[in-house]
Structure prediction request, 566 residues.
Amino acid sequence: MKRTHRSAPFFLAGAFALAAAGGLSAQTLEDLKKDHETPGDVLVYGMGLQGQRYSPLKSITKDNVKRLVPKWSYSMNDTRGAEAFPLVSNGMVYTTSHSATVAVDAVTGKQVWKTVHDYPPEVLRIVCCGIVNRGAAIYNGKVIRVTLDNHIVAMDAKTGKVVYDVVSPEISADTGYSMTGAPLISNGVLITGVAGAEYGIRGFIEGYDAETGKHLWRLYTIPKEGEPGHETWAGDSAKVGGGSSWVTGTYDADLDLVYWGVGNPSPWNPRGRKGDNLFTNAIFAIRPKTGERVWYYQTSPEDPFDYDAVQTPVIATINVEGKPRKVVMQANRNGFLYVLDAADGKLLAANAFDKVNWADGVDLKTGRPKVNDVFKGALAGENVTVWPSVSGSTNWQHMAFSPLTGALYINVIHVGMTYQAGDPPKNLTMGRPSGPGSVKRTTVLDDPNVLGYLKAVDPLTGKSKWETPYKSPNFSSTMVTASNLVFTGVMTGEFQALDADTGKVLWSFQTPSGIIGQPITWERDGKQYVTVMSGIGGVYALRSGDPNLANVPAGASLWTFGLFED
Prediction:
């Protein structure tokens, strides 16, 4: 398949910006490890390899946040959803759309370069759940991203010129695979996952040499015949077993472990794949150099409800039974908040953080959910009412963790559904829809005026310290600062700052479109800024029928805010 890249020229304004920044630093592995400690730059997806989305900056406070004003905005010239995580390095902001990668002067908002990745029309027809991209990685003077047709593309950070363009081996878009997530660079290895469970793929996670693009390893999430776990798939159902890995993971340099979430099995209809369906709906711990899986934990065996476990696992040290312990935390789509030992994967806590009725809890000894008649009825083809809905208690959007408050800040979807699985689909093949039409679903609401919350949640209990309601669920990620401010976006377009101690909305600004993006904060010349993308899209906006979104226009743009100066 022919690929083309179109780069805008490197304008003089960009050259001046780089000169003012003192030239381009290397963005070494050590720089990436210390990203959470160096607030002038944002070099890693999640504001640090741990994925905490916490910043030590505190110039913007509860008292002065009402003085936040736009410093600039930049049009992406795109009507698709804007889900990308911006990066900041040496006075430049780098971000992506599904087809473009841009470098923007961080102070002025002027474009320095733009590289467009052209797709054949057939590529965009096979992407399941929104034509999006969630961001890039930056390393040793290169901005590196993945594309919807499964290429890994590195561009020169100064000019946007393509340095290398490699394709994931032995797959193609017509077999249902696509790449939408931001790569993660761990110990010199660029790690990425794939989407496509809704098209019957065999999912995997894979590693590349970040410097050269050389393919190093591939770890399949679905075992083939003869491999451990294959016995958990009835018949030959594992051949189209799904297990996507479409959201970025995290990395602990001390343990040299990458943590990555794995998504739902295929087909959606569980009556076509009886068994636990390993290793779908799981958290993996992986050696970045080799792709060896060190441990795994499965959250939803034999999942009927599309409860992806792709949510980014957050690494932190918290007190467990009175002692500090390094853990991995995941607020799962199935409604349970999991806390696992980072070294060995031992389950330490698992509690509901919103309304859950398909299981009565999680057995801490076995790690398995205590499924009830709702779950069993769904497997038997009965009509059941289940919480959460197919969207989950949270979807792909990312939570933040504050080491100051000890709380997780989670955008929660409060929606249930009726569910009935009919006869399972037959003769499934890779690259074709994997039978969602055989499952009937309708939306169930507790309160039509409250479809979501932003919650401050205790990791070990799942209980909320506070809950702020929203008319529609927030699909934006959260970000928290040392001044105890939480930033998030609203699907109807508001960008907001809330009090991390109380949940009170302290500041709100209306952007031109809905926000499903990922806020960051950074500092330059002693001044703190906050950046986020606006641009509605994604599967909820496209398919939910939410009446609150009827008048939200499309259009992706990048916004940066700072304090008003008299």
The CA atoms of residues 496 and 508 lie 4 Å apart. Residues 10-24 have pLDDT under 50 and may be disordered.
